[in-house]
Write a structure and sequence with these properties.
Number of helices: 11
Bound molecules: flavin-adenine dinucleotide
Structural class: alpha+beta
Radius of gyration: 21 Å
Strand order of the largest sheet: 1-4-5-8
Order of helices and strands: HHHHHHEEEEEEEEHEEHHHH
Distance between the termini: 38 Å
Helix content: 40-55%
Length: 382
């Protein structure tokens, strides 16, 4: 069943993106996984195709695309591999902060390059000592004339190594009570004195996604780089984190559908006891159950996306979709790997990579426990 928000024009983009990815991404993806990076040239080509921030206004290099296009782009990238999530993060998570809360001057300066692929962005919330507890971050940005002096450390930052521009979540008022009222968003550009990129982190999965530590030691950042108002960063995050979680849920469903597709194909071809693996009742029941759950997840997700496009309050539903779908993705990965037998454990089989990549979706963008906390709060359970 096709989602109501997917129209002919979305399918046209899907088709041209698919053809592009068949030529420019699928043949190279294993190489990128080994290199631990998506090359900049690929970002540029995505920009040329109109698939970087297409939702931006024409004056900034977009075509005013609705969120349906973002869904299509994220789905098609996910089919290649979850390691491409850094592009979705740039398109639908970081750049929206610049567009929604930036000044006219900031937008003119950064947005066209975000759409062309000349600027790669990252968002730095997490610190070694604070992940789920976002208000507990320690990175400070204290005013000194026309600059902020930034000190602190961030970790697990997607696109961290390649980023030209990092949206840093910091405390402009470290003594604020409650703590979240001291949080602000500051753009730190590469080559800023006192800003260094630490090591590229060695992960068990998402090998092609660049994930890094960022260090700020008396980094001098112009006050002109403040996004929105001082002390309002936490409110911007609470609003925009909904789309971030939606992007993770969309990736989870697309990954699950892909795993079911390759596994269904595999069990039809593989034989044991003179029959195909697909002919065993256990295989049929397992895959039928997973197909049902993925379809249920897809239907719910489409409803939430539709409400998000209409601008409705979807905090509770997004939290539900994020935890339920990413838990399902982990289950699909484990069951599908098992149905591949020993081959599923071999690196050259796609299902092995998917099995490594799936679990993090339940951790980032707010762990699944945090999602349940939000739902419970919305239910009046405090
Ligand atoms: C590959 C990868 C990419 C990432 N990309 C980014 C990025 O681009 N930018 C960024 O800022 N961050 C990023 N992160 C960080 C990610 O968002 C955090 O890891 C996540 O929010 C969890 O924080 P933590 O790791 O500090 O875990 P912790 O907060 O220490 O949590 C540890 C465990 O305790 C549980 N827990 C915590 N609090 C509660 C509670 N109140 N009740 C019940 N259980 C609880 C958690 O669910 C988790 O299971 C990335 C992480 C990874 C692994």
């Amino acid at each position: 069943m096709k989602a109501a928000y997917i129209k002919e024009e979305h399918e046209i983009l899907r088709e041209s993106l698919r053809k592009f990815l068949e030529k420019e991404a699928y043949p190279y993806f294993n190489e990128w996984e080994q290199d631990g990076l998506i090359p900049r040239s690929f970002w540029k080509k995505m920009g040329d195709l109109g698939c970087l921030c297409p939702w931006l206004d024409e004056e900034y290099g977009g075509f005013g695309a609705d969120f349906g296009y973002s869904v299509v782009i994220n789905e098609e990238l996910e089919k290649v591999g979850t390691g491409l999530i850094g592009i979705g993060l740039h398109n639908d998570i970081v750049v929206p902060y610049l567009e929604q809360y930036g000044t006219a001057e900031q937008k003119k300066r950064w947005l066209p390059k975000c759409a062309s692929g000349e600027i790669i962005t990252a968002i730095a919330m997490t610190e070694p000592g604070a992940g789920s507890d976002l208000a507990g971050i320690k990175t400070s940005a204290l005013r000194d004339g026309k600059d902020y002096i930034v000190n602190g450390e961030k970790t697990f930052i997607t696109n961290g190594i390649q980023a030209d521009l990092v949206l840093v979540v910091c405390k402009t008022d470290p003594k604020a009570d409650p703590a979240h009222k001291g949080v602000s968003l500051l753009v730190v550009e590469k080559n800023t004195l006192g800003f260094t990129k630490g090591k590229k982190l060695n992960k068990i999965g998402l090998h092609s996604q660049d994930t890094a530590e960022l260090i700020f030691e008396d980094a001098r950042v112009p006050t002109d780089n403040l996004i929105g108002k001082e002390g309002e960063g936490f409110y911007y995050l609470m609003k925009n984190l909904q789309q971030e979680r939606l992007i993770v849920a969309i990736g989870g469903i697309a990954a699950s559908e892909r795993m079911l597709k390759i596994t269904t194909q595999y069990v039809k071809e593989r034989k044991a006891f003179g029959k195909s693996i697909a002919s065993f009742q256990n295989t049929q029941f397992k895959l039928a159950e997973l197909e049902t759950e993925v379809e249920i997840g897809r239907t719910f997700l489409d409803r939430v996306v539709d409400s998000h496009i209409k601008g409705e309050d979807v905090v509770k539903e997004v939290s539900m979709a994020k935890w339920w779908i990413t838990d399902l993705t982990k289950k699909v990965a484990a069951e599908c790997m098992h149905l591949h037998g020993g081959y599923g454990y071999m690196e050259e089989y796609e299902i092995a990579r998917r099995y490594r990549d799936a679990p993090v979706s339940a951790i980032y963008a707010g762990s699944n426990e945090i999602m349940k906390q939000i739902i419970a709060k919305k239910m009046g359970l405090q």
